[in-house]
Amino acid sequence: MELNDRKKRILQAVVSDYIETAEPVGSRTIARKYVTDLSPATIRNEMADLEEMGYLEQPHSSAGRVPSVMGYRVFVDNIMEKYKLSVMETIRMQEVMNEQAQQFDKLIEKASRVIASVTNYATVAVSTGHKRSKLKAIQIAPVSSKEMVLIIVTFDGTVKNKLIRLKNDVEPEDAVRLSKEMTGRLSGLSLNEISLETINSIKNEFYSLEELVGAIIGFVSEVIGEIDSKQVIVDGGVNLLKFPEYSNIEKAKEILEVLDNKEQLSNMISLPMPTGNKVNILIGDEKNGVKLKDCSLVLCNYEFNGSSGTIGVIGPTRMDYARVVSALEYLCEGMRPQLEGGVTKNDQEKK
Amino acid sequence: MELNDRKKRILQAVVSDYIETAEPVGSRTIARKYVTDLSPATIRNEMADLEEMGYLEQPHSSAGRVPSVMGYRVFVDNIMEKYKLSVMETIRMQEVMNEQAQQFDKLIEKASRVIASVTNYATVAVSTGHKRSKLKAIQIAPVSSKEMVLIIVTFDGTVKNKLIRLKNDVEPEDAVRLSKEMTGRLSGLSLNEISLETINSIKNEFYSLEELVGAIIGFVSEVIGEIDSKQVIVDGGVNLLKFPEYSNIEKAKEILEVLDNKEQLSNMISLPMPTGNKVNILIGDEKNGVKLKDCSLVLCNYEFNGSSGTIGVIGPTRMDYARVVSALEYLCEGMRPQLEGGVTKNDQEKK
DNA sequence: ATTAGCACTCAAAGTAGTTGAGTGCTAATA
DNA sequence: TATTAGCACTCAACTACTTTGAGTGCTAAT
């Protein structure tokens, strides 16, 4: 049997209505609200076909139809129309993009927050590719003779700092010299390219600053660890509670617990880097080993000053895919490298 | 009527059992499990008295008794026995205290996490008193000739940084000079004592570095803003979902939404600085304007290198107060100033 | 090919009836 | 006089049964 035009129209009606109401959709409803040129009986016949083809399901024999995972799939891939973001929505997203464009880590945090609030689902973001981000500078800023702030800056604009207290005095000049030297030797290397030999040679050269050098090395490895164990940001978990699919606590707990488990989330999101920075939609079934039956996940990759990552929206399978996709695309597009005086795509569109 | 010893025993039984089971407690249960030397009938009479006195309530006429807010109050103030923390519990808390003792902001984050996981309720922490924390140093660390990391360090060990990009080149020497000068002039001042005049005089003196000085001033005011608008940390919200009082979604949503609203939380927690760093227990009724009827809040103040704050546990009124109080007291005690070589109270106890 | 009509299905909502944990009161007991 | 056994009473929670209505599939008419 072929998915002809009429069948498509009816499938679209079922999915759209179900997305809106969360109730099984009957033939009458469709005839009244969507496909007014056909009678319920005809629609019933078509729906029976669609069910046979695997696009629809019936919760029980006298209920309306509900989209199956396959149904959502073709809806998302072939039927769904592009959602046009409202002005308010674009403004809210742009505000964030403009505000804090320098610091990678903060940027993602803000981005997650907007996406959660614009889509009304939950957001998850991880920064991968980070690993490859190269060291730009190591700075030692003396606070007092025994206290230093260590700073590591990478090429993507991530800044990590640590306040340390030393037992021995260190002259500010020495600190400056050391940081210059370390920056010189280590700059351009990716964080995990820094070898023990390099470190040791610095250690030998600055044997008088042994304690400080030790602290720096400790900090560097700490930062490597931190950056490698990708940062996972979650926002908008509570949003999900307003959907009827989570009105029973067990379901709600299930998903909120997943959102609380950064480890698991990271696995779920970061494995399946799909094509370019197109959005990728995972529906229903198990996603990367994490089983969240009735959830969908819309993922989008972003890039920013050489670092990249994935930001995703988690919600019920009955998610407003069109809106979510548009929002994510707009945001990720707007997050492309912001070089000095650079113009992002969204800016251009506005003109 | 007087709250004699026998009544106290029975009240204790009711509260303890209700805390454990979340079910109304009947006279038989008490006679079997707690007050074995009295018959159910006698206990019934006493319970009727306790109800008349306002310490107990009946959900309906043929149910057992449940503690009233007043009942919890006297339980907490006069009846409850101190809970002795298990070794595991103390170890878990100490690990955190020792690990990241230098940086104030990170410390509180970790502390919240442990408390949530040790108590199995939700934790909320704010850092107040921060406002009074004094500026220790302003550092400018050049990354390249056009990029600088600005760093502000306060006396309590808070470090804030920001990566900025300038239009004009700045010589590293100038940056060093400027940061020395600014540290010299501003160090020791609390963040909101920094006056416009001081700022302007620096601006005049370093007119050639106008852009950089401008950026720094912007950053300083940003940091003041950030520190004044207290940082609110929340953890363990999902923990609450396992309690039957939140098995209906509306209730769950209500409390999780409060936990999501940092503004509201901050008001709820930070207003009622009670005596010293003793714990303070708010039961049931409205707390500082936020109405969360069936919740209790156990608060404890901490101090750390001159900054202070409040950490609190939120849970159902039927909370294991004794355990929560002990955990909070232990933790806040352990968080006292960690000066070089200093010994905290908990360390001493161990010996 | 479409549709009106009708019998059929089944979850959800409503209606009793039953059960059992718990109470309060009274009269017997230590 | 304080305690307790005994008993009638209450009421949420559970079960079993009925009703309702939205929705279906099939058939015969258009």
How are the SSEs ordered, and which strands pair?
The structure is a homodimer of 351-residue chains.
Chain A: H1 5-21, H2 27-33, H3 40-52, E1 56-57, E2 66-67, H4 69-79, H5 87-99, H6 104-119, E3 122-126, E4 135-142, E5 147-154, E6 159-165, H7 172-186, H8 196-205, H9 210-228, E7 232-235, H10 249-260, H11 262-270, E8 280-284, E9 295-304, E10 307-316, H12 321-334, H13 345-350
Antiparallel strand pairs in A: 1-2, 3-7, 3-10, 4-5, 5-6, 8-9, 9-10
The first copy, chain A, binds a DNA duplex (30 and 30 nucleotides) through residues 24, 26-28, 38-42, 44-45, 47-48, 58-64.
List its salient traits:
homodimer; 351 residues; alpha+beta; Arc Repressor Mutant, subunit A; Enolase-like, domain 1; 3 domains; 5-stranded antiparallel beta sheet; 3-stranded antiparallel beta sheet; 13 helices; 46% helix; elongated; disordered C terminus; DNA-binding
Structural commentary:
The structure is a homodimer of 351-residue chains. Chain A is of the alpha+beta class and 351 residues long. Chain A has 3 domains: 5-79, Arc Repressor Mutant, subunit A; 87-121 and 236-350, GAF domain (Beta-Lactamase); 135-228, Enolase-like, domain 1, CATH 3.30.390. Chain A has 13 helices and 10 strands. The first copy, chain A, has helices at residues 5-21, 27-33, 40-52, 69-79, 87-99, 104-119, 172-186, 196-205, 210-228, 249-260, 262-270, 321-334, 345-350; strands at residues 56-57, 66-67, 122-126, 135-142, 147-154, 159-165, 232-235, 280-284, 295-304, 307-316. In chain A, the strands form 3 sheets. Chain A has a 5-stranded antiparallel sheet. A 3-stranded antiparallel sheet of chain A has the order 4-5-6. Chain A has a two-stranded antiparallel ribbon with strand order 1-2. In chain A, helix 1 (5-21) packs across helix 3, helix 1 (5-21) crosses helix 4 and helix 5 (87-99) runs parallel beside helix 12. The longest helix of chain A has 19 residues, at 210-228. Chain A is elongated and about 90 Å long. The model of chain A is unreliable at 338-345 and 347-351 (pLDDT under 50). At the A-B interface, strand 4, strand 5, strand 6 and helix 10 of A face strand 4, strand 5, strand 6 and helix 10 of B. The structure holds a DNA duplex (30 and 30 nucleotides).
